[in-house]
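Protocol step 6 of 9: fold each sequence in the batch and record its structure tokens directly after the sequence line. For illustration, a two-sequence batch is reproduced in full.

Sequence one:
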Amino acid sequence: MHYRIHRNIINGYQRGKLLQLPTLNVRYYSSDYKNIGTGVWASLIKIKNNYYPAATFAGNAITFKNNRKTIESHLLDKNVLPPIKKIQIIFIIKIREIMKFENINDLKLQINKDCINSKNILRKYVQRNY
């Protein structure tokens, strides 16, 4: 069984927009650490009755010296959605641990790799499970 959370959307730091990789942001609670830890996950985002593949970051953005943990999901196949208030995140497979990057370009390259890895993982997952 995969760990699932149901959360209200919150405002983030707007870094996803800056990187041209917008995210849906939700709160990170201490119980999340016990279940998912920190890192990057291939995930599914449920909005109403639809599922969307995503790459989800959980933890603190050490590249930006951010001490507050957050959960940020980038939808892989959809850039624009109507206003959303609540989502469900299903954490499928952990891709990697949190890394510190020397610059924004290195971070963006890694995020793009994470998105490709997530797509490949989720494509196989959906074929086996749906």
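Sequence two, same batch, same settings:
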Amino acid sequence: MNILLASSEVVPFAKTGGLADVSGALPIEIAKLGHRPIVFMPAYRAALQSGQPIEPYGDEFSIPIGSKIVAGSYLKSRLPNSDVDVVLVSQPEYFDRAGLYQENGEDYPDNCERFVFFCRAVMEGIRTLGLHVDLIHCNDWQTGLIPAYLALEYRHAPRYAKIASMLTIHNLAYQGNFWHWDMLLTGLDWALFQLASDGVFWTAQSAEDRHRIRQLVDDGQPAICPGDPNLRARLWLGRSAVASDRVAPRNHQRHRRNGVEPVHRSAPRGELRRQQLARRQGDL
């Protein structure tokens, strides 16, 4: 079986915890069973300085992130003492940083964007690099969008038609929680965010908040914040969640820089959806 293991950290290239240990050891053991694994991970600064031999691999590629196009490239290495190839996704603006996910104790504010890019780069790599894949093994929230992209955007492409996917959660405490406007970065339809079913995880602070948000979602509004403009919805990569957390004003400025202009919350019902559709059509 041809198995693509996607992970945000892999020993000996980059590590913050046990995920890296598993991602560096499991492919080698899988190979011993006669399977053909390949590993994808980001080309962090730490990975490039790990002392492992790394070389260019394939051509450059471009990926849509929100309303902009971001270019990247692939690098290639190998897990030590094995024949398991490692593909590193290179995009210096996202990954050439001092830390993997945070710096000075603070998460990078564009972590959602960084790993949306990584998930799309993994999917594009299958086609760009001419890989034959039977199974994509995703690991933790950083790769949680890959099964969604596989099912919604790539399923009918010949090289992807028979690929299966699985997700391993190594630490449930880290869920990839982001404010709802980050959904625009994924390129996926808002309908996938409006889960008014048991698939929605409610983390609002009170029953009243849960009722207010549930009512809006059931009415078909795309994660609109109720009465209090500071209430926000939260996106968990891989599944949708709604929360009543406070929105930092810097998030608005960050999304304007990223080319994603938040829709004003006072817009009448239906107008928000029309604006979003018009924006997406303009990106085509």
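Proceed to step 7 once all outputs are recorded. Observation for sequence two: The chain has a mean pLDDT of 79.
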